[in-house]
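Exercise: predict the fold of this chain.
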Amino acid sequence: MLNIDFDLKKFENLADFDHILVADKNGIIIFYDVGDLNVLKELGIRPEEFLGKNVKAFYKHFTDENSTVMNVLATGTAQCNVRQDMLTNDGNKIISQSSTYPIKENDKIVGAIEFSSRLFAKENIQSLDKLAGHKLFRKNNTIFTIDDIITVNETMEAIKKKINNIAKTNSTVLINGRTGTGKEVVAQAIHNLSDRYAKPFISLNCSAIPASLMESTLFGTMKGSFTGSEDMPGLFEQANGGTLFLDEINSLDIYLQAKLLKVIEEKAIRRIGGKESLSLDIRIISATNEEPNTLLDDKRLREDLFYRLGVVQIDLPNLTERMEDIEVLVESFINFYNNNMNIVIANIDREVLDSFKRYHWPGNVRELKNAIEMAYNHVSSNQITINDVPRRIVEFTGKTTVQRKNVNINSLKDAVDGYEKEIIVNILSTGGKIAESARRLGISKQSLKYKMDKYHLR
């Protein structure tokens, strides 16, 4: 019969520990439940390589005497709340607090179980920073805070101040910005600065859900309301008490735009097939990657809904309008990838930064981040060079390929429509698919299809 020789007076404190390790009588690890896999990364070993090794194998100075596991196996005496200063084979210092107990079978020691937690000293606080991130906020479905809005640009600094102010209220917010300008970062920043931060942040890209499923996705369903339906809360219910972020709101069907307006005004919903209304306490933040005035002119956004969604409006600039942020953004992305990839970059060649500042960035900040990630996959030293970044950026000359024609213009709208049509024709003529063409234009696929129909291009 197996038994673990616990000191019952101290057993109640085991909940304070994060990791559990079980070793056999020879100190070979046969089980490990780790609270954070980054602990293994610091040991320089993958999870599948950990089991089956001796507990002393990962540290330079471990012996049968100073290893708590090996000592308990030898003496049969539990060691409780012992601090261990360990030096990994890679030279990293790890400090742990552990309680270790012998496992006995018929009074014979057959193994040991150790409960431990990682401690952080001043000299390895950088390691703690790597592990932390925004883990507290991740409990509410977010990964960004206002600190993730990296800028030295005057306009963006003003936007950050505005975010701080409006976070205190419950007013609806409409964020306008091209693809990749950081609309969801702003939305999450508002949520995490508000009193709603302990409640969920629910995000939906309206262009990603088929129109036939959108209503049930938002409002939920009651069992029996249609064939195969079940009791299912919609996103409005899931976000109750918190924030619902509706990206590309202009992709929402006009019929659903009317229902959304009613939800905002009445602060209540009714599930599909339901008979009772459910009260809501949510903040709605919406976003569009096209100018609201254009959407209103084209009848793709209800005017009454626009006024209710845009009590507060935030207009995010394109990256080309904040080029002084290129260097601080690059530095931030390098720090991020140094902590998340198995490569450490020390710096970036000046020639690369110069090419970044010449480029027109149709994908904005997201495209810049992707360019840095690509560099990590090509770099052959600890410096990013011109050979490591996408060729389209290096070879960009800054010259437009759209040639204006002498046309009869009756109004400013005619001129804008004519220019827009030329740009779309030019992009489509390169042979790219609609999705790629939309990305290059900085609009959604649905918007491009609408414009193609508008100008009879398909």
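Check your answer against the key: The radius of gyration is 29 Å.
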